[in-house]
Amino acid sequence: MKEKNSNSQHILNTSANLLGLCFIVLTSRNILEMKAATLIDELTAFAIFSFMLSCILSFLAMRSTTSFGQKYEKYADVLFFVGLTSLFVTAVLITLNIIE
What confidence category does residue 6 fall into, taking pLDDT thresholds of 50, 70 and 90? Predict the structure, then answer.
């Protein structure tokens, strides 16, 4: 049987790390003078928002003693995947701008 809120601590740890990475991408983007800078900024900001909400919801899932804990973990997992996808698209855009 699956342990209650078993993924929350992993989601919290990884989301927090990727949140820091997003801030590095957002601040270092100015140094590279990229063509798609506004799109990269918007996608990175969206990833920051997704990872921050994922951190909050996974923390709430770990602290919850009610049935809402599973729902918080589920939403944190979905938001983590959305942030990860956004970060992937950002990485592709950065790579394409560096190659050109």
Answer: confident
Number of domains comprising the chain: 1
Residue 12, classed as helix, strand or coil, is helix
Whether the CB-CB separation of 12 and 59 falls below 8 Å is answered with: yes
Q: What confidence tens digit (pLDDT) does each residue in 18-49 have?
A: 888 888 887 777 776 666 677 888 998 999 99
Whether residue 6 is contained in a domain is answered as no
How many residues are given for the chain?
100
The verdict on pTM exceeding 0.90 is: no
Task: Tell whether 4 is covered by a domain.
Answer: no
